[in-house]
Amino acid sequence: MLGGKPLFDLQLADEQHDHGIDYQTDIFLSDCMKKLAEKFGFDLDKPKIPLTEPLPCNLHVETSPRADQVQHTLKWNHNCPYQGCFTSVTQVTHPGHFQKTVLVTIEFPSSTERTDIAPGDVLAVQPKNSNYTVEMFFRLFGRFLPENLVKVPEVSEEVLSVHFLAAEVLDLNSIPRRSFFEELSKLSTDENEKEKLQEIFKDQEMFYSYCCRPRRTILEVFRDFPITTALIPLERVIEIVPRIKERNFSMASMAVFENGKYHVDLLVAVVEYQTKIKQPRIGLCSSFLARSSKFDVVFVDVRKGSFKLPVDGSIPVIMIGPGTGVAPFRSFIQSRCGRNCFLFFGCRHPERDFYFKEEWTTLYPDLRVFTAFSRLDAQKVCYVQHRIREQRQLVSKLIVEEGAVVYLAGNAKQMPKDVKEALVEVLSVGGSMTEDDAKYYFKDLERTGRFQEEVWA
Fold first, then answer.
1. What is the pTM assigned to this prediction?
2. For residue 273, what is the enclosing H or E element?
3. Torsion angle, CA of 323/326/327/328, rounded to 10 degrees?
4. Tens of pLDDT along 51-109?
5. Which of 70, 296, 359, 455 has CB atoms 3.0–4.6 Å from 412's, for a disulfide?
6. Is 297 helix (H, G, I), strand (E, B) or coil?
7. How many Å apart are CA 142 and CA 267, to the nearest integer?
């Protein structure tokens, strides 16, 4: 390290931890400040700015009286450069199914046909808040008028309406970090609310039970502290509320280029669940996609995915994609017209959430599909790993003798672990290997890119 010496031990924060990244960063920051104070000789007990007072606002907000300066369609400083639109939004699950899934088609312009877009790539989508969220925002912040115009250089060089900020810029439905409560407490002039906000910030368990466990949103926190909320100026709201970030989705189709426009499908399960809070928790981007209509504007970007399809079409591909994990594999199958494609697909019921059922049978006669329906027979639960074990001779032959590449996509909870165990077992039994040899062989598949996975929480 060129003579450098570490001041403190490495701390690794886990965003999936119940308490969020703060669980480890609190330990790190405390140790860090003590070491820095010792090294540079400053007094932690006597900061130059009192810790209970807010720092000067970093944002500069200008008011603008001219309504003609506002553009109807505006791109602020987010990361999705292409302005596209929806051409269709279709529900693909049975109306009575517990979860709604939609197939969304988006078109966006391109001056030339791009050669870098491949099967397995990702479309980033910039979502917007719902009308309900925006209306609630203006009920809580009664001083802000939707039609008021402002210029916030940190957000956009264009003049914006406050309605635009609430609808498209501020992530009002995100779960706040503990630092949000610290900032809010410094802005509060009500002693009771200030004390409560400081308590939530300082006590990790209280923060977890109030915020993380019930998935309470920033907007709901504002509602729970009405006296503080009523006095927060607009520039502080813009400063402490995070920006809406784009979400990445595996393309569920080949990117088709026609008449200067790309057309891409996305398969999206709408996130909705219940906590102890009466109002259901809703996924920001999935609900945005589901409620969109034909010709609605959407900003997108094309990004490289982690999957790499073999250039040689004679190499078999084994695709394991339960639920919406099947999305990237539809683009694989389209690009190969189903040839040398073996799909293991899992869902609950063949009549409720079997995505692309007719398409597989009518368009791709060479495609081999193995289905696992977990709720078809109450006496026998069946998942994709069970079908893989049933097809152990075929799977081991494809991998060991024909050099197949194996892909896995879907939920990151238990499924990936179960599938990997099934594959090791298949290699051991069907491939005539010892268990240790099968494990080593599987690790080699991962190392050489012949086993690739793309999973999400």
1. 0.89
2. strand 272-273
3. 150
4. 567 777 777 787 766 555 555 557 898 999 999 999 999 999 999 999 999 999 999 99
5. 455
6. strand
7. 39
